[in-house]
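Predict structure. Chain length: 177.
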Amino acid sequence: MVFEKEVRKETLLTIAEKMMLAAITSPKGKGMDHIVAGMAFGEDIRLLSDKILEIGQRENAMDYLIRDSKNILSAEVIVLIGAKINPLNLTNCGLCGMKNCAEKRKVEDAPCAFNLLDLGIAIGSAAGIAADNRVDNRIMNSVGLAAKELKLLGEDVKIIFGIPLSCSSKNPFFDRT
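Prediction complete.
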């Protein structure tokens, strides 16, 4: 006989792998891939938690960061999804706030609106896999802030979100205390 607790971690890791694939295969502007996906588990979760706490203790930081630093310790695995910044030169639309893509390129860290759209679709695709498998999850920018500072997805990935995963009777990532 096998019990749920014996397969929990392995199952969550498999679901995280599927989430990464969903993020990478999601539709992207011009078919150009600027999305990077990875997963953190074990000691990497503690590293992320410590970094979120550090960020949360900085001057003018938002209180939710300290809460999130504790919440993610309930995660078995955290899926990280980020985007590199690279204008797609689709329309010179100005959605990024610049006159055109040439002007945007002068401000390296200003994201192209299409990179952000691609990232949102990738995150939604990944979160959909978690939801389809009834796994506790939450999309968290706090995890992404920490992952970015730690350069977990590489130095050229400028916008990151994290999706911690858990399997429990109550989703620990929606704890608002």
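Summary: The beta strands are 35-41, 77-84, 136-137, 157-166.
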